[in-house]
Design goal:
This protein folds into two domains: 1-32; 60-227, no CATH class. 64% of the residues lie in helices and 0% in strands. It has nine helices and no strands. It has helices spanning 4-24, 26-29, 42-46, 54-57, 66-85, 108-111, 113-133, 151-180, 190-227. The longest helix has 38 residues, at 190-227. Mean pLDDT is 77; it is low at 1-12 and 19-47. Keywords: Signal. Residues 1-22 form the signal peptide.
């Protein structure tokens, strides 16, 4: 009986010989392969429609400074303007909490700064996701495409705002769920109704202030491109 080493050597030599035979006689070795194999044309592969996920994983950013400028407008300018709107204390959002202790050297505005930045960071992230979903960092979104005018930039700005608003609603629903430990509905109790109305008012204020600032900024950014 042959040892396992001899069998292994025999199999190895057979494979080498078979590979050499296939190399010199390719048609004979692959005669069982059908002559016509349906393959996708290379032109179709190059011009295939990208998936929606690629808008987030591989976005097109024609102006590298635009995402940063958008984040500053959505995450700093708009929330700070809300603080000034609520300065008369007629209405104070729940996120507007003085996180720093009272001090003689810091007035109330500076003590509200960390809470404002924290809330603004969430709004900036939501706006960025909306911009990626609506391809708002491409040149067509700020007047750099073939279509002139403000129609396309305003359209994409509204699309990004719609996505960001939907994400804000989902985030608010998640916040209510974690606060009460379950899904709540209006009419269950006075406390729940007050909390839902408060969340609705805060979301409405966020959407309104963000819309004013971001539309103004995008129109201004488009005007810079059209003047070149």
């Amino acid at each position: 009986m042959k040892s396992k080493y001899e069998i292994t050597l025999f199999v190895f030599i057979f494979c080498i010989v078979r590979q050499a035979e296939c190399f010199y006689h390719v048609p004979e070795c692959f005669h069982h392969v059908p002559t016509s194999i349906p393959l996708r044309s290379p032109s179709l592969l190059l011009h295939s429609k990208p998936s929606p996920i690629s808008r987030f994983t591989n976005p097109t950013i024609d102006d590298l400074g635009l995402p940063l400028a958008d984040a500053l407008i959505a995450g700093v300018v708009a929330p700070v303007s809300q603080v000034f709107i609520c300065a008369n204390r007629a209405y104070s959002p729940t996120w507007l909490i003085a996180t720093l202790p009272p001090s003689t050297t810091l007035n109330r505005a500076f003590r509200l700064f960390p809470a404002t930045l924290s809330h603004g960071a969430v709004l900036a992230i939501l706006w960025t996701l909306g911009c990626l979903a609506s391809k708002n960092y491409e040149k067509e979104a700020f007047g750099g495409g073939e279509v002139e005018g403000y129609g396309e930039p305003l359209k994409r700005t509204l699309q990004a705002g719609s996505v960001a608003t939907a994400l804000l609603i989902l985030a608010t629903q998640a916040d209510l769920f974690f606060e009460f430990g379950r899904w709540v509905q209006p009419g269950e109790s006075g406390e729940i109704d007050f909390r839902i109305l408060t969340a609705f008012a805060e979301g409405l204020l966020d959407v309104g202030v963000e819309a004013v600032w971001l539309v103004f900024w995008r129109v201004y950014r488009t005007s810079i491109t059209t003047r070149k």
